[in-house]
Amino acid sequence: MSRPVIGIVGNSYLINDEYPAQACGTFNLDAVRYVCDAIPVILPADPALISVAEALETCAGFIFPGARPNVHPSEYGHDETEAHGAFDRARDGLALPLIREAVARGVPVLGLCRGFQELAVAFGSTLHPEIRDLPGRMNHRMPPDGTLEEKFELRHDVTLTPGGRFAQIFGGTTVRTNTLHGQGIDEPGARVVIEGYAPDGTPEAIHIADAPGFAMGVQWHPEWNAGADPVSRPLFEAFARAAHGLARAA
């Protein structure tokens, strides 16, 4: 049996600050190829280049990875402020409707960092523009200095709902994760079920209630060291089982 195709939503950026490009982190590609045993395909983050229908015809699952730009606050009914940072409206235009339609059809969806926030916003959540400014919250942002290993090091625990979907995947109710994000969920949408929290109360793991397929997201970056990390690997394996199952049924 051929390996299923997993679509990884890319990011637009400038090479040498002038040449437009679409790409995604190699760690995401490696996680799909070596942990999920699937074919990674980068989807351009622009609805002018690929439609939701075309993406769904091509892929047996989708990963929505992290990115520097944030979801535009108009997508959840808030006004834009300087604290919201940079945006990528083209990615918003593809990712949010693709998430909704994929979830409706039971196509597996895994959101990572910004992708976690996209999954939350797609189902009615609002976001804090800068959670480190909230009383009692820690700074979840990427450390400004150090090697990649130091920036992606495991920095805090996440406490999971006993008996929940994440606890079943990880085989316990506490996991250790990295943290490299500035925004976070404010008010969750009606179908957004929060199953994991950082020690400061920041939501870290969600699933979509009543989704007919795999529809989960984490606020951290499990793609880092995905093949060896005891938390990352089972998460990608659970996503892969859903994608392989859909591919076999097609």
Describe this structure in words.
By secondary structure, the protein is an alpha/beta fold. The chain has a single domain, classed as 3-Layer(aba) Sandwich (Rossmann fold), CATH 3.40.50. It has seven helices and 13 strands. The strands form three sheets. It has a nine-stranded mixed beta sheet with strand order 4-1-5-6-13-12-11-8-9, sandwiched between helices. The chain has a two-stranded antiparallel sheet with strand order 2-3. It has a two-stranded antiparallel ribbon with strand order 7-10. The longest helix is centred in the C-terminal third of the chain and has 18 residues, at 232-249. It starts with a strand and ends with a helix. 44% of the residues are buried. The model has no long low-confidence stretch (mean pLDDT 94). It catalyses: 4-(gamma-L-glutamylamino)butanoate + H2O = 4-aminobutanoate + L-glutamate. Belongs to the peptidase C26 family. It comes from Pontivivens insulae. Pathway: Amine and polyamine degradation; putrescine degradation; 4-aminobutanoate from putrescine: step 4/4. Pfam families: Peptidase_C26 (PF07722).
Number of domains: 1
Q: Mind describing the biggest β-sheet?
A: 9 strands, mixed
Overall number of strands: 13
The level of helicity is 25-40%
H and E string: EEEHEHEHEHEHEHEEEEEH
What's the CATH topology label?
Answer: Rossmann fold
Rg over CA atoms, rounded to whole Å, is: 17 Å
Structural class: alpha/beta
The CATH architecture designation is 3-Layer(aba) Sandwich
Question: How would you state the average pLDDT, rounded?
Answer: 94
Can you say what the CATH homologous superfamily is? Class I glutamine amidotransferase (GATase) domain
Q: For the largest sheet, list the strands in their spatial order.
A: 4-1-5-6-13-12-11-8-9
State the distance separating the first and last CA atoms: 12 Å
- What assembly state would you assign to the polypeptide chains in this entry? single chain
Proportion of residues in extended strands: 15-25%
State the helix count: 7
GO biological process, one term: polyamine catabolic process
Function: Involved in the breakdown of putrescine via hydrolysis of the gamma-glutamyl linkage of gamma-glutamyl-gamma-aminobutyrate.
Enzyme class: hydrolase
Protein name: gamma-glutamyl-gamma-aminobutyrate hydrolase
